[in-house]
Design a protein that fits this description.
about 650 residues; alpha/beta; GMP Synthetase, Chain A, domain 3; seven-stranded mixed sheet; 30 strands; about 30% helix; globular; binds 5'-O-[(S)-butoxy(hydroxy)phosphoryl]adenosine
Length: about 650
């Protein structure tokens, strides 16, 4: 099919300045349609759009109306007929020191072959597949192969347990799942296929399971349902990329909210791809020869957007690392940076705080001079961590790009933009909005916050990376994101803008926790505890944690007849198995009753205040005073136990 594109992904000449940013930003806000009409050419399109933005059905905004494209073409095919053919797309390594380099040509071959395998398994345009894989090459291959034939995918973080996986398979309606025999984690093997087998007991839509042989673990293969990946791929095959509508869904990614059920965030094809590739360019100014390491897991939006789609669209070389930063050595991360000459490192404040604890000696032992730019994501970065990262990792010469965004926003929305601007950084501030993003801070009373005043962060206008909807629940899309202030996108975060127009993100304003940068709903953890049937009530909140940002604390009331001895451990064990380690509370306290309102709502804020020795605030709606002393006694007992 004929290809259209009028610009190369990399500008040969650019001159970042504050004036340049102001001019680009102004154009993007004053005339977004003109702005995106030009900028969408970062991609190749089969057919140009008739209209840039359709807001007639707001807040269901649609971009690049009737534009046709294919993401796998943009991420792979367009690089194989030029000098990038033999360039590494991915350098995979793991905690065992194994290495696999996949060039753009190699990726192209793999994607085509797996696309055919999916077709042979009956997957067609409009279907959804699930992907439950560790950080291995087959994960991006599966994502791109699905996109190539027009199927959407939902990739589930391999740290989730069987029930969490089943819930996502059911909601997405996936007909096929791609998994591996196992994955490596800190010297152990996580039995992924076994978890899939268990999850499939709770689902009926999956007809086919494809298993990547990775750890050589024994697995149980079900005849007629389960196939080895290496048995069905490897043919020399070309699969014509399906021309997709710009607003066809590319993937569904589940994320936690303020209710128990995770939301399936649906992202588009055209708008999303334009957004992630543009924002990566603006923020990090990557160069053709760079080695880019986005050290997130592919199971989160950070991995989707900035390990897979944006870097591949731009033709970059990415590090794909399966493992922890501090295993098997405390300097594992620095070894990798040195060995592969990483130029840009993008990670989370939690990881930085963890590495900081090991001390300066470890980064000092290594040659980190290849690093040019550092980045952070996922939670506010405290100035001490920023300084440490800047001095000890970047040797006081690498700018830190603090990127603020969300699963729902597709890509960065507020961050330094090294490709456009050169304003000074301020530790802890994500600085300025990206082109097309118009942030507004609104106070509780509905007034617009003045400079220096804290309020809720909203985004006034749509941008191409904004999700399409919440899967199967458009009402939830409207009520969660567009109802607090009508027509404005609600982020759920607190923010302040300072005198210089810099934005400071201050954390969640709702019942959502940020544990090691992972987003976890308090109610999600409560529901997980209740699902064990060992407790009748659970109240969960986040407590400040030096490394993880927040840790999960739960207070539970056991069901009558349940033995208290070892209850905490049993609960942890069951929650881990069903939902995965990230949902497991760090502390569980057993009490007789929880503070509740007269209408029966658990008052988490009261539990948290008592726990943290703060004033519990307004107690007029409290049902029983005794519940507060219950918590107080439990906390007292816990403190004594720790002291001993
Ligand atoms: C929430 C979104 C963004 C991809 C990974 C997390 C918090 C994210 C920052 C930052 C302060 C941040 C917010 C946001 N957050 N980045 N640079 N500074 N807070 O995506 O799981 O959807 O979480 O992460 O609270 O709402 P997510």
């Amino acid at each position: 099919m004929e290809e259209m594109s009028n610009s190369l992904p990399f500008d040969s000449l650019h001159n970042p300045s504050i004036e340049r940013y102001r001019q680009i930003y102004k154009e993007s806000i004053e005339n977004p349609e003109k702005f995106w009409d030009e900028h969408a050419w970062i991609l190749n399109w089969y057919k140009k759009w008739d209209k840039v933005l359709d807001d007639s059905n707001a807040p269901f905004y649609r971009w690049f109306i009737n534009g046709k494209l294919n993401i796998s073409y943009n991420a792979v095919d367009r690089h194989v007929n030029n000098f990038r053919r033999n360039k590494a797309a991915f350098i995979y390594t793991n905690e065992r020191g194994e290495e696999k380099i996949v060039t753009y040509h190699g990726l192209y071959k793999r994607v085509n072959s797996f696309a055919q395998a999916l077709k042979d398994m009956g997957i067609k345009k409009g279907d959804t597949i699930a992907i439950y894989l560790p950080m291995i090459i087959e994960a991006p291959v599966a994502m791109l192969a699905a996109a190539r034939i027009g199927a959407a995918f939902t990739l589930v973080f391999s740290g989730f347990g069987a029930e969490a996986l089943a819930e996502r398979i059911n909601d997405s309606g996936a007909k096929l799942i791609v998994t591996a025999d196992g994955g490596y984690r800190r010297g152990k093997i996580i039995q992924l296929k076994e978890i899939v087998d268990k999850a499939l007991e709770y689902t009926s839509n999956v007809e086919t399971v494809i298993v990547v042989k990775h750890t050589n673990t024994d697995v149980n293969m079900v005849e007629g349902r389960d196939y080895w990946y290496h048995h069905i791929t490897g043919e020399n095959i070309y699969v014509e990329p399906e021309p997709m509508d710009s607003n066809d869904p590319l993937f569904i990614l589940y994320t936690s909210g303020t209710t128990g059920k995770p939301k399936g965030i649906v992202h588009s094809t055209g708008g999303y791809a334009v957004w992630v590739s543009s924002t990566l360019k603006w923020a990090f100014d990557p160069q053709e020869t760079d080695r880019w390491w986005c050290a997130a897991d592919i199971g989160w939006i950070t991995g989707h957007s900035y390990i897979v789609f944006a870097p591949l669209i731009l033709g970059l070389t990415s590090i794909l690392y399966e493992g922890s930063f501090d295993y098997p050595f405390p300097d594992q991360i620095w070894r990798i940076i040195e060995l592969y000459g990483v130029n840009i490192l993008y990670t989370s404040p939690t990881a930085i705080r963890m590495l900081m604890k090991y001390g300066d000696i470890y980064p000092k032992k290594h040659d980190l001079s290849s690093l040019r730019i550092l980045g952070t994501v996922g939670e506010p970065i405290n100035p001490a961590a920023w300084e440490w990262y800047y001095k000890n990792v970047g040797n006081s010469r690498c700018p830190i790009v603090d990127t603020y965004w969300q699963t729902e926003t597709g890509g960065f929305i507020i961050s330094p933009q090294l490709g456009i601007a050169n304003w000074p950084l301020k530790p802890g501030s994500a600085t300025y909005p990206h082109p097309g993003i118009e942030p507004v801070i609104i106070k509780e009373n509905g007034e617009i916050a003045k400079v220096g005043e804290k309020g809720y962060l909203f985004i006034k206008k749509p941008w191409p990376g904004l999700m399409l909807t919440v899967n199967k629940d458009p009402n939830r899309y409207v009520s969660t994101y567009f109802s607090k202030v009508k027509g404005y996108y609600f982020t759920g975060d607190y923010a302040i803008m300072d005198n210089d127009g810099y934005f400071w993100l201050l954390g969640r304003a709702d019942e959502v926790l940020k544990v090691s940068g992972h987003r976890i709903g308090t109610i999600e953890v409560e529901d997980a505890l209740l699902s064990t049937e060992l407790v009748s009530e659970a109240g969960v909140f986040g407590k400040p944690h030096q490394v993880k940002g927040e840790s999960i604390v739960a207070f539970v009331v056991p069901k009558s007849g349940i033995q208290r001895e070892g209850l905490e451990e049993r609960l942890k064990q069951m929650v881990r198995e069903k939902f995965g380690p990230i949902i497991v509370p760090d502390e569980i306290h057993v009490v007789e009753m929880l503070p509740k309102t007269r209408s029966g709502k658990i008052m988490r804020r009261v539990i948290k205040a008592v726990y943290l020795d703060q004033l519990p605030g307004d107690l007029t709606t409290l049902e029983s005073e005794a519940s507060v002393s219950e918590i107080r006694d439990a906390v007292e007992k816990f403190r004594n136990e720790i002291k001993q």
